[in-house]
Structures are given as C-alpha cells and as structure tokens.
C-alpha cells in the first residue's frame, strides 16, 4: 500500500520462508492456553471448540486461496482527505486501475497499459495516498503462509452469521514494511477476521498497524476488506469486493482510500484480456551524463515529443542532473534566443478512459530565464475540433523559479477522441518538467478551461481514425524514469 502526504509506500509483506516455523504457532498457543506442556503432560483434555472450529476454517480458506487462478479485476479508488478539526472529508479524486493476482503477487497497471509490471506505486501518482496489497496478499499471509497468531474474538462482530478471530503478525514473520520518503520501518500488525458460521466463508478482515514509527509521519494505519464469491474462469473463488484504507498522520490529517473491485476475469495468455502496445518510443542514447542545463547528447525523451512551428529553435532532453524526485526529469530549451513562436514538450493519448469525466493535470515545473513556461492541455474530437483547452496564459509563470506545482482541470466531453498535454516554453530560457500526474476528479473541482484557439474541423477520414487508434490508451513515462 502507498501512503503519505508527499509520497510514501506501505506494503504488506508475507514471508513465505517462515512457513515451517509459523505452521506450529496455532497448536503451540492452544496448548499453552490450556497450561499444557506437550513433552511432559499426558492429559487428554479436548481442545476448546473454537480451536477445532478455527482449524476447519483455516483449512477451508487455505484451499480457496491456494487454488485461485491468475486473474485481473478493475479497481476504482476514491481518495479523500480531512484536515484535523474538520467534520467532513473532501474528495480528492477518483483513480482507475487494472489489478492482477499473478503467481501470489499483486500487480497494478493503468487501464489500457501494455501489461502488468512490478513497479513502485509512485509510478502511478505524484502525491496523496494510494493503497494496494489488499487484493490478495492479506489472506495469503493469514491462511496460506500461516504467519499469524490467532485467538478467538470475544466481542460481537456486528456482522451477519459468524464468529470472529483476532490475529497478530509479528515483524519477524512479515508484518508491514513502511517507506515514507527516506524513512523506512517494519512494523507488526494486529486485526480481526470474521467468517460465516455455516459455510466458513471469509466475510471481512480488519487490520491495524502496531507502533508506527514517528519518522514516517504517520500515527495510525487501518484497513478493512470485505469478501464474497466470484466466477473466475471455471472456478468460483473467494475474492475481495471492496476495501477501505485510512491513514492518520501525526498532524491529525486523515487520508482515506475507498476501493471497489469489479469485472474480475481469468488472466491467461489465451484470455480475452488484451493489452495494446503504446506508440513506438524513440531511441535514447544511454550512459551520456547531462550537464546542469541538460545534455544535447540525449536525442529524445521516451514517450514525449517536441511540437513547434520552428522546431530548429527548441530542443527536448532527458536531464539526469536536475530533477524534482527520482533520477531524471524532462526539459525543453530555447537554443537560439529569442525563439520565435513557442516550443512544447508534449505527448498525446486516446481519451477513451476519461470521456464524460473531469481530469486534473498536475506536475512540478522549474524554470531558468524563461519567457513563459506553463503546463497546457487540450481535448480534441475525432475531427480535430478543440473541445477543451488551457495553456495557463491567464496565470503565466516566467523568469527563474525553483520547483513549483502547476495544475490544469478540464472536462472531457463524451465525443472526445484525444487528450494532449505538456510543457510550453516561449521566447527564451529553459524549463524542466517532472512527476506529472493525470487523474479524474470530482465535479466540485473548478474547470480552468479557456476559450479554445482556432479549431480546425472537418469530416473524419480513415487516415485520421487510424492515427487516433495508434495512440496509447494512457499517458506514459510521467516521471521520465524510462
């Protein structure tokens, strides 16, 4: 799971190598609870009913979670924030992912991406809180890796049908790994899960991080996951239906993710799940160090292009010496000042996943002696009509500025075909771009759109449609680390 006000990672780690030791924890605890030493005590007192029932529950759930096929679901994440003292939280945005359970790992991808990769969650966002690990890792820790110490839950669960069980996972058997900026820590967890009394099906898991170190900036981390049966291929398996992650910072800020899982299907090479390759990216020369102003030896920026009426006056580069976070940034330079017109470091992608929604483009920008340097975004129809536009000309940035955040919010009409965005530089200087984020937001966010410039329009033809179809379904290389 990722958490933080800036950017932090919170992952659930199930140490499968500890299985040989942890397999005996339940029996050892039960014997100790009865005051028995298995080496010296020959009494044959029966174990409590709850211990026998728990054994049956664990066997049943282990069989389910061991045999789940590789699968993929759609995940919708609503993100909320609440300041200390405020009675209600405000919605930050809504994110959409494909999330996969593949060989006991949980992987994320943006809708329409070229496939699933085992990447840091910071790849998919530049700020705020994002949670994962609830999809499959949590039940694997409890019922397959067998790393939890489990006892009967004494309080009423408030859920229909069934008993509850408390559990603890110590640090040395897995627990949670937290990374918040430079601060890293492993912590134990405790929680409760409930099952149906008759079917022994898992209903809910609630989990709480124990003694979160103050250097992470977090005070409490709580998660709740609800489960139900779903059809996956030829199997009917127990999967999460929804999840809730709440992080409380030391300053009282509360950040919350509400996650819903839907459209689950088997993920195999013959599956109908299909990922289209993004547009071919230009080749980049590697092992060429950048100067503080950028390096002319870098020929291109993967996933990005240069647009200008006078392209010979501008150059786009990957800069390995100047960045907001990570190891690289993208930059655009006016090479022959005063540069006529403007130059833009930009990319475009299909609008399919964003139609009918409001989209927020945000990024970190740095400038040096720039005539003007601003984010810009445009939404086009299939006939090249400009449907929405903002180049921040009503709130310009110029001169020399350290890293600062810029933002654009546009509504994407249902007839939209393409979304284009980037960093525009005018007249002189240099500008850097890093940690770009493009997210759907609630309608309460104010649209920053301006009157569109000239909007060429005409009847769409086969060539136009072919060009649109060749565009990637999602933006790529937003942090310039590729």
Textual characterization of the structure:
By secondary structure, the protein is mainly β. It contains 5 helices and 23 strands. The protein folds into 2 domains: 8-266, no CATH class; 305-470, Jelly Rolls, CATH 2.60.120. The protein has helices at residues 19-22, 25-33, 49-66, 137-144, 462-470, and strands at residues 8-12, 71-82, 90-102, 105-109, 149-152, 164-169, 176-180, 183-187, 189-195, 202-209, 218-232, 235-249, 254-266, 305-308, 314-319, 329-334, 339-350, 358-370, 372-381, 386-390, 399-411, 416-427, 430-441. The strands form 4 sheets. Strands 4-3-2-13-12-11-10-9-6-5 form a 10-stranded antiparallel β-sheet. The protein is elongated. The chain starts with 7 loop residues before the first strand and ends in a 12-residue tail after the last helix.
Helix content: under 10%
Shape annotation = elongated
From the alpha carbons, calculate the radius of gyration and give it in angstroms.
26 Å
Q: What's the N-to-C terminus distance?
A: 23 Å
**Total E-strand runs:** 23
Strands ordered across the widest β-sheet:
4-3-2-13-12-11-10-9-6-5
Mean pLDDT over all positions: 75
Number of domains: 2
**Beta fraction:** 35-45%
List the helices and strands in order. Answer: EHHHEEEHEEEEEEEEEEEEEEEEEEEH
SS-based class: mainly beta
Largest sheet: 10 strands, antiparallel
Q: Tally the helices.
A: 5
Low-confidence stretches: 1-42, 269-299
């Amino acid at each position: 799971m990722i958490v933080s006000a800036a950017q932090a990672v919170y992952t659930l780690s199930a140490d499968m190598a500890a299985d040989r030791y942890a397999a005996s924890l339940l029996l050892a605890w039960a014997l100790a609870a009865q005051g028995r030493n298995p080496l010296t005590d020959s009494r044959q007192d029966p174990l409590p009913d709850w211990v026998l029932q728990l054994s049956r529950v664990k066997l049943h759930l282990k069989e389910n979670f061991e045999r789940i096929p590789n699968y993929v679901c759609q995940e919708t994440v609503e993100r909320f924030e609440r300041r200390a003292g405020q009675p209600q939280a405000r919605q930050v945005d809504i994110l959409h992912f494909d999330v996969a359970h593949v060989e006991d790992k949980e992987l994320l991808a943006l809708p329409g991406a070229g496939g699933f990769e085992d990447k840091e969650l910071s790849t998919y966002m530049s700020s705020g809180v994002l949670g994962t690990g609830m999809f499959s890792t949590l039940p694997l820790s409890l019922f397959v890796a067998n790393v939890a110490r489990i006892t009967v839950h004494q309080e009423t669960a408030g859920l229909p049908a069934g008993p509850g069980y408390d559990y603890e996972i110590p640090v040395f058997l897995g627990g949670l790994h937290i990374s918040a900026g430079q601060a890293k820590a492993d912590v134990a967890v405790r929680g409760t899960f409930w099952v149906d009394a008759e079917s022994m099906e898992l209903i809910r898991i609630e989990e709480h991080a124990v003694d979160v170190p103050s250097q992470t900036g977090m005070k409490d981390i709580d998660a709740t996951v609800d489960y139900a049966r779903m059809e996956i291929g030829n199997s009917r398996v127990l999967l999460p239906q929804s999840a809730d992650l709440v992080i409380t910072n030391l300053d009282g800020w509360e950040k919350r993710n509400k996650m819903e899982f839907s459209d689950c299907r088997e993920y195999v090479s013959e599956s109908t799940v299909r990922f289209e390759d993004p547009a071919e990216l230009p080749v980049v020369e590697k092992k060429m160090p950048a100067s503080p102003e950028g390096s002319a030896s870098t020929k291109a920026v993967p996933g990005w292009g240069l647009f200008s009426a006078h392209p010979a006056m501008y150059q786009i580069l990957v800069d390995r010496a100047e960045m907001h976070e990570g190891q690289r940034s993208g930059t655009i330079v006016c090479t022959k000042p005063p540069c006529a017109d403007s130059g833009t470091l930009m990319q475009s992608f299909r609008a399919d996943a964003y139609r009918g929604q409001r989209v927020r483009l945000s990024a970190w920008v740095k400038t040096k002696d720039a005539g003007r340097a601003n984010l810009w975004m445009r939404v086009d129809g299939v006939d090249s009509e400009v449907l929405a536009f903002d180049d921040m000309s009503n709130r310009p940035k110029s001169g020399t500025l350290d890293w600062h955040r810029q933002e654009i919010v546009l509504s994407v009409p249902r007839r939209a075909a393409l979304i284009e965005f980037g960093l525009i530089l005018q007249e002189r200087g240099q500008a850097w771009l890093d940690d770009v984020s493009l997210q759907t937001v609630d309608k309460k966010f104010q649209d920053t759109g301006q009157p569109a410039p000239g909007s060429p329009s005409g009847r769409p033809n086969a060539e136009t449609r072919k060009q649109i179809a060749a565009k990637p379904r999602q933006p790529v290389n937003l942090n310039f680390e590729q």
